[in-house]
ABC transporter substrate-binding protein
Amino acid sequence: MRKFSTVRALGFAQNDLQAANLTELVGQDALDAHFGGEYPFHERARVLADIDGSTTALPYVVSTPVLWINESILEDAGIDPDTMDVSTWESLSQVAQQVTEKTGKPALNMPCVVTGGSWCMQGLFFSNGARMISEDRSTIEFGSPEAVETVEFFKGMYEDGTLSNEAEMTQYEDFARGDTVAFQLTTSAVQSMFMGGAETNGWTLDTSYMPQFGDKEAAPTNSGSALVLLAQDPKKQAAAWEFMKFMTSDRAYEVITTEIGYLPLRSTMTENGGPLHAWVQKNPLVEVNLEQLDKLVPTVAYPGQQFTEVDRVLDTAIQDAIFQGQDPAVTLPDAASRAQDYIEE
């Protein structure tokens, strides 16, 4: 068994590492039994590691893009966190401008648009009607007008001074410090870091849903990892399957959720009477992440051995457009064309 740090690597695991097709190896009945039980997997979570209708791996630790909020900065800028509208990117941009006018610094951090944020950027594209790849997984599609429009929006936020340009870890540290950044859209895996920063530095932390574009419903994607089975010996396969089941069991998600901040994919554990109900009541910040499971859209796993190069090409194009002044209408289609070569090798 092996843990893949991103579900975007599943195509590589299946085709190049010969990861077991769990639907064929253990059977659909065994999978249904495991995904079911007293606290079944959320229906959208159980298919996160599927390829072509078969279960390639077991979804393991997963998050959705959460909008983290520093309420103290908002109040200092004369904004009431309880009445402000951050449901859309357009309204969030207006609030961010008010904060930036007060602080003189960017009000929004967004690791989605820098290296390492591809999983989250996919959700932004999906939310604006763009696709990453065709349904038959043969054609790269992130050069579309919808994708260009998405990048143009954040280019505008950078140009008006509300969006920061920093490396992923620097963004986390800046937000946790709590002095200038009012918003950050990122994974819930940083929950402990942000809670600790708020307590240490004396500011108030809150969360909200991933904003949508206009009247288009947001399509939050998943970060995280999945467990794949690589053993070829039948006895080792049987042992690995038992361990995979334990690592995605009720008990495992008690630890994963309370100690790290990832979602309990067996989401009914948080309901009244469940083993995580009391914990969620004491930690209401997690409720946004849980509720976004109902809208979860799987991140795309590109085919071929060069799947990481596809992300690299797209990351570079996005950053060149947003931060380096290049035209998204040129960089995105060009990136799609070059990425096409990688999935056809």
In short: Residues 66-221+305-343 form a domain with the D-Maltodextrin-Binding Protein; domain 2 fold (CATH 3.40.190.10). The chain has a mean pLDDT of 93. The longest strand covers residues 66-70.
